[in-house]
Write a structure and sequence with these properties.
By secondary structure, this protein is α+β, with helices and mostly antiparallel strands. About 40% of the residues lie in helices and about 15% in strands. It has 3 helices and 2 strands; from the N terminus they run ααββα. It has a two-stranded antiparallel sheet.
């Protein structure tokens, strides 16, 4: 949690790393429980695996597809869980 970028964009769940950092003491028991269930069953909730692709403008002619780069926004909780693994 502490290594995550606080300004990273949240995905469809709307919860960014800044929320996890701010409320970590309160969220830690719930996160631990959720991660333990995922570990026990060997899978994560389907919603955690949903990503949204956004195009980020780089430079040059905005009409040229080569001047855009795709990024995938994923649920921060999934990123936290995968970082632990």
């Amino acid at each position: 949690v502490h290594r995550a970028q606080a300004r990273s964009s949240p995905d469809i769940d709307g919860i960014g790393h800044d929320i996890y950092k701010t409320f970590l003491p309160e969220l830690l028991p719930a996160l631990h429980a959720a991660f333990a269930v995922c570990w026990k069953h060997g899978k994560v909730p389907a919603l955690w695996k949903v990503g949204t692709v956004q195009l980020i403008y780089k430079k040059g002619d905005p009409e040229s597809p080569g001047n855009w780069r795709p990024i995938c926004l994923q649920a921060c909780i999934y990123k936290l869980y995968s970082d632990i693994l």
